[in-house]
Amino acid sequence: MDASILIFDTPEEAAAACGDRTLEILERARRERARATLAVSGGSTPRLMFEAMSSRSFDWQGIEIFQVDERCVPPDHDLSNFRMIRESLLIAAGIDERHFHRVRGELAPEEAARIYVDDIRQSFGLNHGELPVFDVIQRGMGPDGHTASLFPGEPLTGDRTGIAAAVYVAKMMQHRVTLLPGVLERARNTLCLATGKEKAEALLKVLDGPRDPWNLPSQFASTDTVWYIDKAASVLR
Ligand code: 6PG
């Protein structure tokens, strides 16, 4: 895989560097196009990054923030990615939530996906069939090599025409809504943040193994993809 790989001593350093790069790209994009678009992941890893971003003095005016994926749970649920993002970024950085495009996890999955796709189309001014081009998509990686909510063997891993869809993650018994590969591959910048020894095995396969996005969806990349990892996650490389 020909992505750039930056290795840091600690998860905190990797998260802060990924967050700082995110802000740099957003600042530049806003200067060029008066607005910038960011899609952020959930799970646990990004919390450190969001906390670092919130500690920087950054003007969020003109920045539209979207979700890479969401669990189909209410926004105040412990498993809600929105809840974690709201606590560690939106509230902490004083971001106006009108500029956050939330997946309505409290709705039925297919309805939540339909509404989210309409929201993205409207925000990007897309005609039917067009895909959004995000300035930054920040992604994580699971120990099984999944990214977003595209898990190994997920049929939609082959979908390069859709914007987002509802998926069922059997091993977690969770319905989710996720951006689809066609959108992930079009991002102007993709920043992947993966830390901790539990990611080491998957990272070795994703970064150094043969191309196999069906089984390793974290191999989806856009032209400018940078991995931010810590030494623990890089231990097998
Ligand atoms: C989610 C995320 C998911 C995440 C990976 C890594 O909803 O869980 O969007 O794709 O990035 O599962 O999760 P951790 O950061 O918790 O290891």
Rg is 16 Å
CATH class reads Alpha Beta
H-E string: EHEHEEHEHEEEHEHE
Shape: globular
* Strand percentage: 15-25%
Number of helices: 6
Secondary-structure map with pairings?
Elements lengths: L3 E5 L2 H23 L2 E5 L5 H10 L7 E5 L1 E3 L9 H13 L6 E2 L7 H16 L11 E4 L24 E6 L4 E6 L1 H4 L5 E5 L5 H9 L16 E6 L7
Parallel strand pairs: 1-10, 2-3, 2-6, 3-5, 6-9, 9-10
Antiparallel strand pairs: 4-8, 7-8
Helix pairs in contact: 1-2, 2-3
Summary keywords:
about 240 residues; alpha/beta; Rossmann fold; seven-stranded parallel sheet; three-stranded antiparallel sheet; binds 6-phosphogluconic acid
Tell me what the structure shows:
With 237 residues, the protein is α/β, with parallel strands linked by helices. It has one domain: 3-Layer(aba) Sandwich (Rossmann fold). Helix content is 32%, strand content 20%. It has helices at 11-33, 46-55, 81-93, 109-124, 181-184, 200-208, and strands spanning 4-8, 36-40, 63-67, 69-71, 100-101, 136-139, 164-169, 174-179, 190-194, 225-230. The strands form two sheets. It has a seven-stranded parallel beta sheet. Strands 4-8-7 form a three-stranded antiparallel beta sheet. Strand 2, helix 2 and strand 3 form a beta-alpha-beta unit. The longest helix has 23 residues, at 11-33. The structure holds 6-phosphogluconic acid. Residues 41-45, 68-69, 81, 140-142, 147-149 line the site of 6-phosphogluconic acid (6PG).
In a few lines, what is going on in this structure?
This protein has 237 residues and is an alpha/beta fold. The chain has helices at residues 11-33, 46-55, 81-93, 109-124, 181-184, 200-208; strands at 4-8, 36-40, 63-67, 69-71, 100-101, 136-139, 164-169, 174-179, 190-194, 225-230. The model has no long low-confidence stretch (mean pLDDT 97).
